[in-house]
């Protein structure tokens, strides 16, 4: 009986040490990403670290690197053969969508070249680029096959989102690609309606030409 209890005690102790070690390693991994420590992240990957495992906030390493502005680590992760370039975070967003938000055209192009999806159901990278008024990103995504009239989850189109940026060049870029400013979302509103609400007569004029 004593031997059995001793074995059980040792087993629990070993499990505790293992779990503690894993937790500390996990904390170190995410801290290394946050601080753009390429060599440490590279070493962790070499030891078998899962480059696609989400953190406690539901973010994969590649997207956390973008959030932390750790772009050297991002570049390292992109080159990893096991990386999932179309991985989704807890909000169903992808790495390309994050790059569209910050307007990093060069890295976004590289991601597409490596296999990142330009189009997807619901919110897409083009919606995100349009919402920020990133004209170069909008043009690049369109050139790589982004659908100019793709409806988001609640029906809003990229040009609808472009109106929120109040950038006339973003609106013009989408119009030139065939975006329909009269396409309505689930609230029954279109880009022209939104421009009027936001008191953007210049955008209204552009879309009514």
From TrEMBL:
It comes from the Bacteria. It holds the Pfam family Ank_2. InterPro entries: Ankyrin_rpt, Ankyrin_rpt-contain_sf. Residues 1-23 form the signal peptide. ANK repeats lie at residues 121-153, 154-186. SMART domains: ANK. Keywords: ANK repeat, Repeat, Signal. This is Ankyrin repeat domain-containing protein. It comes from Advenella alkanexedens.
């Amino acid at each position: 009986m004593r031997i059995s209890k001793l074995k059980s005690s040792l087993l629990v102790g070993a499990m505790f040490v293992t779990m503690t070690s894993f937790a500390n390693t996990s904390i170190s991994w995410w801290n290394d990403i946050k601080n753009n420590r390429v060599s440490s992240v590279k070493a962790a990957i070499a030891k078998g670290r899962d480059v696609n495992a989400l953190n406690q906030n539901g973010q994969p390493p590649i997207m956390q690197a973008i959030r932390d502005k750790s772009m050297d680590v991002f570049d390292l992760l992109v080159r990893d053969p096991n990386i999932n370039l179309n991985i989704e975070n807890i909000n169903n967003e992808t790495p390309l969508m994050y790059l569209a938000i910050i307007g990093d055209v060069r890295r976004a192009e590289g991601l597409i070249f490596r296999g990142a999806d330009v189009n997807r159901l619901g919110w897409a990278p083009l919606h995100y680029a349009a919402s920020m008024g990133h004209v170069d990103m909008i043009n690049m995504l369109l050139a790589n096959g982004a659908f100019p009239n793709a409806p988001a989850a609640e029906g809003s189109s990229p040009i609808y989102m472009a109106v929120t940026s109040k950038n006339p060049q973003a609106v013009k870029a989408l119009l030139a690609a065939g975006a329909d400013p009269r396409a309505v979302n689930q609230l029954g509103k279109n880009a022209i309606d939104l421009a009027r609400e936001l008191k953007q007569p210049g955008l209204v004029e552009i879309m009514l030409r």
